[in-house]
Every structure is written in structure tokens, then in C-alpha cells.
Design goal:
Elements (H helix, E strand, L loop, with lengths): L3 E6 L4 E3 L3 E7 L11 E12 L7 E7 L2 E9 L2 E5 L4 E4 L4 E5 L4 E7 L1 H6 L1 E11 L10 E5 L6 E3 L5 E7 L1 E2 L2 E2 L8 E8 L4 E5 L5 E8 L1 E4 L3 E4 L2 E5 L5 E6 L3 E8 L7 E3 L2 E3 L2 H12 L5
Antiparallel strand pairs: 1-22, 2-3, 3-4, 4-11, 5-10, 6-9, 6-11, 7-8, 7-10, 9-12, 13-14, 14-17, 15-16, 17-24, 18-23, 19-22, 19-24, 20-21, 20-23, 25-26
The structure holds manganese (II) ion (MN).
The site of manganese (II) ion (MN) has 5 residues, from β5 and β10.
């Protein structure tokens, strides 16, 4: 059995721009937890936005050294960057952006969502890159809902959407630089599911809503994050309510982390260079 390390939550909320009211569940500064290859998880919303004329969001800002993975649950986001990419993601869609050597981008509510208003709910997960890929050219994977395989669970127990990695032989569409399993799991009240992970992988579960019993012992409630020990492979979940979980699992990257806001590199010298490059306009 894979033992639970601890459960954490935060009730502190802050705005990213004027479009994303987020709670940060972990970051690369969080002590006493193995989270590599993941760097940060922001949970935006759920929040009801009234109709508006001017799109809310966050204007042009840089990233370097890692990937941002945006998972939309409700609402719609339009993005645009200085490398010439742009696009829109809606409910069920995922944008996997490999910022790598750097770009500037903006993330805004879509024109239609702005006009109509509605509930916004999304996750942004930051995924670290091994040193050898931190300075490759930036690129995107726009992974729309209909490309994400869905495995139904037995006896109407819910379903699992495989965004990255593999679940029972079904492969997710995301291409990753390290071994990563990223699954959107919906477990129906009263149902039990046993998950099997590779030995010695980092594993975290985030509950967007609902409540699950972990390994017949601890309870993970909504807006809580569970960290597991690296050792062991099997985790048993029993849903006490209909529950939506993000399952994050991956091989730790055993390299030093030097971070400064939207730049995550291996050394302070590389951070200084990122700041210098940004100030010199090299991000576009
Ligand atoms: Mn961003």
C-alpha cells in the first residue's frame, strides 16, 4: 500500500489578474513534501462572473523553464503569446504549454464567456522540465475534450479521463518530458476504486469537490490535497460523496530548483539570466 503522507488545504485566495480567483494548493516552496516533477497547483474558482463588456484575465507575462498545464472545468479561456500561438479552451479541454526557454502570454476569459457570464472553474498545474529541456523552443499542445480517452468505471462508479500517461493500457494524448500520469477522476458516492502507481513515484490527489476515504483511513474533502509517500504502489479510494479528483503522479526530477515567480531554473545564475533576458525584451 502507498501510505498517505499528509493532507493540506488553503482557504487563502488571491487574484491572478482580474480573471482568476485562485487558491494555491502547493508550490515549489512548500516544505516537507515531495512534489517533483510538479511545481505548483492553482485552483481557480468556482466563481460566478456577471456578464461584462471587457474580458477579464491576466495580461502579457513571462514564463521560463517549465510547463503550464491549464485544465478547464467550466468557462472558457483565450490565450495568445509572443511566439505566435493562440487558441481557446473550454470545459473538458486542456492546454499544455511548454514555456521552456521563454515566452510572454496572456490568458483571458473568452469573448463569449465575458458577454454571457457564468461560472468559471479551472486548474493550472506547473510541471517542471529536466535541465536538458529547460531552454528548448516553446510549444503548445491544445488537447481538446474529444481527444481525451474516457474509461468508465465498473457499476456506474464514475469515469476517468486520461490526460497524460496511462490507465489500464489506455494512453492519454499529452506528450511529456518525464513519466507523468495526469487523470481527471470522477468517483460516484459509495464506490471504491483501487489505483496502482509505479513504485517510488510522486503522487498527489486534489479534490475539487466531494469527499473520499483514502486507504480506509483518512478523509480527503473538497479543496484539499493529499500527498503520498514515494514508496508503495496501491491507493484505495472510497467516495463518501460524488467526487471530482485530479490525480497527479510522476517520476521525481532529482535536480536542484531555483525559482523566482514565473521563472523556474536550476541555479540562481540562470534566474538572473532569465530576469536579464526578460528586461532586454528577449521573451518577445
Ligand atoms: Mn501564464
Amino acid at each position: 500500500m502507498k501510505q498517505l503522507h499528509r493532507i493540506t488545504r488553503t482557504d487563502e485566495s488571491h487574484w491572478v489578474g482580474d480573471g482568476f480567483p485562485v487558491r494555491t494548493l502547493f508550490s515549489y516552496n512548500t516544505p516537507d513534501a515531495e512534489m517533483s516533477p510538479f511545481l505548483m497547483l492553482d485552483y481557480a474558482g468556482p466563481m460566478e462572473f456577471p456578464p461584462a463588456s471587457k474580458p477579464r484575465g491576466v495580461g502579457m507575462h513571462p514564463h521560463r523553464g517549465f510547463e503550464t498545464v491549464t485544465i478547464l472545468y467550466r468557462g472558457e479561456v483565450e490565450h495568445r503569446d509572443t511566439v505566435g500561438h493562440g487558441g481557446m479552451i473550454g470545459p473538458g479541454d486542456v492546454q499544455w504549454m511548454t514555456a521552456a526557454k521563454g515566452l510572454l502570454h496572456e490568458e483571458m476569459h473568452s469573448a463569449a464567456f465575458t458577454r454571457q457570464g457564468g461560472v468559471f472553474e479551472a486548474i493550472q498545474l506547473w510541471v517542471n522540465l529536466p535541465a536538458e529541456y529547460k531552454m528548448i523552443a516553446p510549444h503548445y499542445q491544445s488537447i481538446l475534450n474529444d481527444r481525451i480517452p474516457v474509461q468508465k468505471l465498473d457499476r456506474q462508479g464514475g469515469f476517468i479521463r486520461i490526460i497524460a500517461g496511462e490507465y489500464q493500457g489506455i494512453k492519454g494524448p499529452a506528450s511529456t518530458y518525464t513519466l507523468i500520469n495526469l487523470w481527471d477522476l470522477r468517483l460516484s458516492e459509495g464506490h471504491t476504486l483501487e489505483l496502482d502507481f509505479p513504485e517510488n513515484h510522486t503522487t498527489m490527489l486534489f479534490a475539487l469537490k466531494g469527499s473520499v476515504k483514502i486507504n480506509n483511513a483518512s478523509t480527503l474533502n473538497d479543496v484539499e490535497l493529499a500527498f503520498f509517500e514515494q514508496a508503495g504502489t496501491k491507493v484505495t479510494l472510497t467516495a463518501l460523496k460524488d467526487t471530482t479528483l485530479l490525480v497527479m503522479n510522476g517520476a521525481a526530477i532529482n535536480e536542484p530548483i531555483a525559482g523566482y515567480g514565473p521563472f523556474v531554473m536550476n541555479t540562481q545564475e540562470e534566474i538572473q539570466l532569465a530576469i536579464k533576458d526578460f528586461n532586454a525584451g528577449h521573451f518577445g
